[in-house]
Design brief:
With 414 residues, the protein is mainly alpha-helical. 83% of the residues lie in helices and 0% in strands. The longest helix is centred in the N-terminal third of the chain and has 36 residues, at 3-38. InterPro entries: MFS_dom, MFS_trans_sf, TM_effector.
Length: 414
């Protein structure tokens, strides 16, 4: 093991292995759930409803889950959520294998897994600063993002389709196994005291239940740097997803791409994101977290604009690859700064607020992208989205200066 690897510690590498394994399982069921539901119904409304089922309950329960994470042993919550997911998937596997699966079972299963994954993700966000040195948070977050992107976005869906073709029950069986492996990996170290909830939040313990739920929101209201990070995260979701609403139409009608070429186009961005994520930690040490945040945010926005100025598929593919490079680095920088600047006892609730905002922004962005495409054309949406990124930075310059001061005060590289 190199010195750089050892800086992250054995426990982080176990979390990384568990995260990679469970995200592979997520990718499996992302492919398998729609395939299975299509054999039970051809109603597009039901198919769409199932796709939303995994996110809506978690969105509603995000704040209570954030409080739970801040009041409970975070490592054990991660183990428990993995075991719960495994139980749900084993149950679904049994019914699929017996040929007795029903639509309502898929809806219940999707909702249950979605809630458990929210618990796992929020706990991971809150636990990470206790597992790695502050200077290594950026690299740790980048590695987690790369593992998630690779597992749930590339390898998992591909294997899910192949496994489903071999036997409809198979992807669910493999998925349950990934959760069991993940829980075992994390369970090997959760007895350590620094995986427990912080104990320096006694005033909040005496607060009302409503105050517990809104503590994260109140903190954001009074902490300008933390609020700025949330604004940047929300804006990147709003403008980043906007062109995605009509991407398939843009590729087919303006770039004249075949379905195969369209799939390869999507893979190019993922490749860039993975490569950029792997290099993000090294880049952060060289230029500092604050400069990396501003640089990656501006770069991504700038690279959206030329997509709207060409109809050449090869040029767009090259731009998509370049767009991927800052993608994980920017998101990982925001998370690392939040984990550094936010009190440890509130990290679960801040993570929950992040989830609520991102879950609300994505459908709003897709809807806006569709409306804009109908009004001004597919190409113009890319230009609007790129300008949105740049204007967000411009309008938040005073707040960014306060963020830079907070980073310096925390003795982080700027």
């Amino acid at each position: 093991m190199t010195s750089n690897q050892s800086n992250l510690g054995t426990r982080f590498h176990r979390v990384l292995a568990a995260h990679a394994t469970s995200q592979l399982g997520v990718g499996l069921h992302l492919a398998a759930f729609p395939l299975l539901v299509s054999t039970l119904t051809s109603d597009p409304r039901i198919v769409a409803a199932l796709a939303l089922t995994a996110s809506i309950p978690g969105l509603i329960l995000a704040l209570p889950i954030g409080v739970w994470v801040d009041r409970t042993h975070r490592g054990r919550l991660m183990v428990g959520s993995d075991l719960f997911c495994a139980l749900v998937l084993i149950t679904l596997t049994t019914f699929v294998a017996l040929g007795d699966i029903r639509l309502w079972m898929l809806f219940v299963g999707a909702a249950a897994v979605g809630i458990a994954e929210l618990v796992f993700g929020t706990s991971t966000f809150a636990l990470l600063p206790a597992l790695v040195p502050q200077a290594e948070l950026m690299r740790a977050n980048s590695y987690l993002s790369v593992a998630g992107q690779t597992g749930s976005g590339v390898v998992g869906p591909a294997l899910g389709g192949l496994a489903y073709a071999a036997g409809p029950f198979l992807p669910f069986a493999v998925n349950s196994a990934t959760y069991l492996i993940s829980s075992t990996t994390i369970g090997s170290f959760v007895r350590h005291s620094d995986t427990r909830v912080p104990v320096d939040d006694r005033p909040a313990r005496r607060a009302t239940r409503r105050g517990e739920l809104t503590a994260g929101i109140r903190h954001l209201g009074g902490d300008r740097p933390a609020r700025t990070l949330l604004i940047l995260s929300a804006s990147s979701g709003l403008f980043g997803w906007m062109p995605e609403a009509t991407l398939v139409l843009f590729a087919r009608e303006q770039l004249r791409l075949s379905p195969t070429a369209f799939g390869l186009l999507l893979g190019v961005t993922t490749l860039g994101a993975v490569l950029g994520g792997l290099a993000a930690g090294r880049l952060a040490r060289r230029v500092g977290l604050f400069r990396l945040l501003v640089g990656t945010y501006a770069t991504y926005g700038l690279l959206l604009i030329p997509v709207g100025l060409t109809n050449n598929g090869w040029i767009v593919a090259g731009i998509f690859f370049l767009q991927g490079l800052p993608l994980i680095a920017c998101a990982a920088t925001i998370r690392s700064l939040q984990q550094t600047l936010v009190p440890a006892a509130l990290l679960g609730r801040i993570g929950a607020v992040n989830r609520i905002v991102s879950s609300a922004v994505v459908p709003l962005s897709l809807a806006a992208g569709g409306v804009l495409a109908a009004l001004i054309g597919y190409s113009a949406v890319w230009i609007v989205a790129g300008l949105g990124f740049l204007l967000t930075l411009l309008f938040n310059l005073p707040a960014l200066r306060s963020l830079e001061s907070a980073v310096e005060h925390a003795r982080l590289p700027t």
